[in-house]
Design goal:
The chain has 113 residues and is mainly α. It is built from 3 helices and no strands. It is elongated.
C-alpha cells in the first residue's frame, strides 16, 4: 500500500517538475558530413569494389591455369602411353574432385593407398 502511494507521489513530482530540453547551440548544417564526407565515402566504396573485382579476377585466373595444367599433364601422360585415372598415384592433383569416379560409376574402384 505504501509502495503505491510512493510511486504515485514520484510520478506526480516528475510530472510537475519536468526538466526543460536544451536548445541546440550548434548549426546542424556544420555538423553533417556534407559533400566532402559523401565524396570520401564514395571514393572508399569505389576502391573496395575495384579490390573485390581484382580478387575475383585473380582467383578465376588461378583456377583456369590449374585446369589447363591438369589438362596438359593428362595429355602428356596419354602421349607417353599411360592412361591416368583418379585412383592413379601419378595423377595426384590432375583430377578435380568432381572428375573422380564415384561409387556406382563404371570402372569405379576403391582407392589403393
Amino acid at each position: 500500500m505504501i509502495e503505491h502511494w510512493m510511486m504515485d507521489a514520484a510520478i506526480a513530482w516528475t510530472a510537475n517538475n519536468s526538466t526543460p530540453s536544451p536548445t541546440p547551440t550548434f548549426d546542424p548544417n556544420k555538423v553533417t558530413p556534407g559533400v566532402l564526407g559523401f565524396s570520401v565515402i564514395a571514393i572508399f566504396f569505389v576502391i573496395c569494389a575495384l579490390l573485390v573485382w581484382n580478387l575475383i579476377m585473380r582467383v578465376s585466373r588461378m583456377s583456369h591455369r590449374s585446369q589447363v595444367r591438369a589438362e596438359l599433364a593428362l595429355e602428356k601422360a596419354r602421349a607417353e602411353g599411360r592412361d591416368l585415372d583418379a585412383n592413379d598415384p601419378d595423377a595426384e592433383g590432375i583430377f578435380r574432385q568432381d572428375d573422380a569416379p564415384r561409387d556406382g560409376d563404371p570402372g569405379a574402384e576403391t582407392p589403393k593407398r
